[in-house]
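Lecture notes, unit on binding sites. The following record was shown on slide 14. It pairs a sequence with adenosine-5'-triphosphate.
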Amino acid sequence: MAKHQFQTEIGQLLKLMTHSLYSNKEIFIRELVSNASDALDKFNYLSLTDEKFKKDEWSGKVFIKLDKEDNSLTIGDNGIGMNETDLMDHLGTIAKSGTKAFMENLTGDAKKDSNLIGQFGVGFYSVFMVADKVDVISKKAGEEQAYMFSTDGTGEYEVKPVTKEAHGTIIYIKLKEDEKEFLDKWRVQEVVKKYSNHIAYPIMLNYSEEETEGEGDEATTKMVHKSEQINAATALWTLPKSDLKKEDYVEFYKTLAHGDNEPLSYLHNRVEGANEFTTLFYIPKTAPMDMYRADYEAGVKLYVKRVFITDDNKELLPPYLRFVKGIIDSEDLPLNVSRELLQENRILANIKQNSTKKILQAIKKLSGEEADTFIGQYNRVMKEGIYTDHVNKELLLDIVKYKSSTEEGLVSFEEYVSRGDSEKKEIYYIVGDDEKVLRNSPLLEAYKKANIEVLIMDDKEVDSIVTPMIGSYKEWNLKDITTIEAPDSKTEEEKEEISKEFKSLTDKIKEVLGEEVKEVKTSTRLTSSPSCVLKDSSDPMASMAAMFAQMGQEMPEIPLILEINPDHEMIKKLDKLDDESLFSDLSWILLDSAKLSEGLEPKDKGAFAQRVASLATKAL
Ligand SMILES: Nc1ncnc2c1ncn2[C@@H]1O[C@H](COP(=O)(O)OP(=O)(O)OP(=O)(O)O)[C@@H](O)[C@H]1O
């Protein structure tokens, strides 16, 4: 008999299962039933597509056996089964990178942590919350030899050949002394109904019960073996909407998401006509942990006429909808559609297009608290959608929200437009990575004064790439306020006059700063700040920079224009200053502090600090 060491991470995981996650132990039943159901799905597919298995008169079943005398619970299925390598690969190691992420994400809150179990696919090991010892006896469909994998959940497991008639898997669980509740028929039935009522196969509960025959002195009791189906065993999505209540949808979601939370929203549609299919989609209340991992798991399962095809196809929905969980069941796809060719399939492309639109329309309809929750979790991926999905850009633009310079909370483009200047039709925005810096930016001063709303986009990584390519929203052009003229009440002549009046000063500052700025000019956009910097939108580098950003590359530097506030005390005094060295220091400070207040860095931070210290000393 071969003894093997568990992979290190599994060792850690087992410890965790046995010692930490004890408040929600019942989920081990959900996890094992779900694995059984997956194994049945896989065999079902084979029996319908592979000649070798077609002759089988087969109907998939899960069974659960309770044995009070032996203090054991057994969960079995007649599904695809596992051979020796499968047992060692699937149960002795965790191939997925998920486990490490699982361990890192543990919060210490047992309820939350047990929800993570499903998300990270460490389902089988949850059995060690209740088991002293586990034997997995399995025979793979189409193979001769069966094997038994045994472990007591410490560091080692054994695998040996055994005899088993039919293909499938039996998991024998010797329960810990204090886990007798899982031998109670009602308790097990309750757990199965809660999590697994709508898996597509019958779950049979086998148990023994004392029955009394006769009455009084004549009465005799004997043990009777019973077997009954304890789940509905209907694929929920095939039922008419009118037969289903919210509770049914929520219950099914729990099976699907391996969790205990309610979904934020769901949509169930049957499409008839040239292309027939049913979809049932859920939007989780909280974004999946792996949403921003490159190896995220697909959330949608594909079925063809109720037969499970795959849960590993990331093309069923566009990537920005990767948080959606659910089912697509097509009537028209061939059962043996090659998994590789799914991508290019016209029917599937049509389903994808239709589903995407339906999901986005449902999201758009969310209101109040639900809409807030959605935006809190998914605003960023929706912006990703704007970038990648041109067909649904309009819908997506109605969903995303931004901070605003004049409103509390988040606002939509629609709300902005309803308040904006309907003649000018412009949407103003400023992008950066620090909300506070953006709100205090000198560039906002003129907009504040003119009472014009500016969208504060503080998710720079995404906004700086996505927003420039939005272009317009319902004929309203988006304008980056760091590149355009500010609103002001002065005429061109007045501006000209001020510019002339300060020409010698602006020339002198430019002389000091040299190539660091492209131009120095008087500003009409400032009220309380002495200076600000702007990107020169007419410079060819500016459009290049946007292109670079879209390709995810480092942006080339765009030359800056320094604007000074002619009404500011400092500028007035500077104009009259004779001390050359002080003039030079103050010119640099005008530039560097303007950069800082817009979230940019001074070129020479050390020199900046020295100049400030020297000025402070003079002021004392
Ligand atoms: N009853 C079973 N029949 C056949 N294979 C099984 C069975 N139970 C488990 N397996 C195999 O072992 C693997 C590991 O199972 P485990 O529950 O740990 O994770 P998972 O099912 O892959 O992930 P998740 O829990 O997220 O669905 C499964 O993917 C499957 O290949």
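Take-home: The longest strand covers residues 203-213.
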